[in-house]
Structure prediction request, 637 residues.
Amino acid sequence: MDFWTLANALATGLLTGLVYGLSALGLSVIFGVIRIVNFAHGEIMVMGMFFALIMFRWLGLDPLLSIPLAAAILFVFGYFLQSTVISRVAHLPDHMQFLLLAALAVMIVNACLLIFGPDPQAINISYSFDSFDIGENLIIDKSRAYAAIAAVAISGLLLGFFKYSRTGKAIRACADNYLGAQVVGLKVSHLYALTFGIGAAVLGAAGCVLLLLIEVHPYLAPGYTLLAFVIVIIGGLGSMTGALVGGILIGMSEALAAIIFQPSMKSAFSFGLLILVLLLRPQGLMGKSVK
Amino acid sequence: MMGLNLLADLTLRGRICLLIFLAILISLPFWSSSYIISVTTITLYLAILGQSWNLMLGFAGLLSLGHALFVGVSAYMAAYLFSVLGLPPVIGIFPAVALAVLIGMLIGYLGFRFSIGGVYFALLTIAFAELVRIMVDHMGLIGGTEGLFLQVTEADRQGFDLINLRGHPWMFYYLAMLLAFLTLAGCRTLLKSKLGYYWQAIRDDQDAAQALGINVFRYKMYAVMYSSGIAGVAGVFYAFYQNSLFPESVFGIERSIEISLGPIVGGVGSLFGPVLGAFILTPLGEGLTEFTDYLQSSGLIDPKLKLNGLKLLIWGLVVALIVLFKPAGIWPWLNEKLGFSRKEGE
Prediction:
């Protein structure tokens, strides 16, 4: 294996990792504030992918242009999901919340199956087969580059929202101190619903972006749920920068595993990394230790 | 004798219902179809696994979402020993279950030594299950993605060979029933033993249990060992009942979720909950398949429509409704309404 094979793999891994990071951000935001592990994570993202697919088929819309609408629709979906269903299980033990979300995941997968069928479906856009050639040997797919740029832009927007906006600060206040937030008059249930909505909107955007890179089918979802778990635990559950760092790490480790071993071994690598992180630094690379 | 203890928990009404239930189960093959027998065999198998899973979460407070791992390694081990070395499962079950328990001990040791709790422990179990699934995918020795198959002849299917576990569906049916009963009685004995009370103390408040001098690490390890051991026994049964093993269908996360569903729906921490959960969910799934088939064959729904997802869609909805409206599980609620048992778990 020569240097350029490695460099190409790492570049591809980095760009894919940025998209993974965006998707994991959706999981991280929800867990960080509401303390719910969203077992329907990949499924909600696949909803976003199918939405982008429909928009492409009907209107010929580039998936990147579908992002605002996909995000808006899934925001509403997430908001109502939290305020009407998930808030009702907030007081139940972990395994009941897990079961509810797993049941929701099963429902989403099978609804998609009923509507779209089991076959993988891809889109074909004008730049699907184009690439940027940097120098002589470094070749980067155009669609992957655009996907990564979109992922970085949306992640930046989200980090900015949580850091600077009043609503963002209020949500962080709920995460830091539930009781305190209530005492100063924040409407916590509304902010929680807002958070779930934002998390789902991020997944909608991530789904649109991901459609540039892979084919979509309903059974894609559970794999992405697991992948997002791996990423946020490596990065630190609840840490937003951690999710991005974890995404890049996993993207690159997958790319390396694929060229050193075989492509089908790549997730074994990720799970191995996950076990190591859980044992050595259970709060994750960027997470704060909670005791 | 363990069985008699089980009866002691029940009120008269509970005992009568249990006897009726047992009578139906035992006589089932004589008056029902082979389809019903196979569904009930799988139901009993899931009841055993539900009991094993419940032992960890319901008794000791340890959430496992990778339980298919214990079933799978044991199934593969016993099947490999039988198909390659010709070792009958009566002997093969020992190394198979030992492997399941060893892996349980490894996960437990890592999890508890590094004090990984709650959600993180659950994710650790998923990670191990997925890791092993991918490893088995790549192990040509045991079939890899192509699967591992056990030879079965038409003569085998008529026989009654318990040593080699080759036989008529009735044999597997009664074997599953016996195992389910032994697991239920065994779990009851464990729950009422000193060990069981230590587990419940740890489940309810680990710090307080430790302060009282309970060796938390050791007893949590025991919980994982018993649980993975029962899952291992079920795994051997599964291998010889199915005669084919594929990494995805044995170790997949769907399998682990399936195992956990019965006890959660039936009632976590109760003895009859996992059994009831299995007897609700498996027939529900099968019934929904029949129902969608009926809708199409009777022309109420266009037969050309593909209804692949409809069954699981409704199934997911039912599970979600149970979580929302009966979060403690069906058994505690049913028990309160009908008074089957003296206060359970106290």
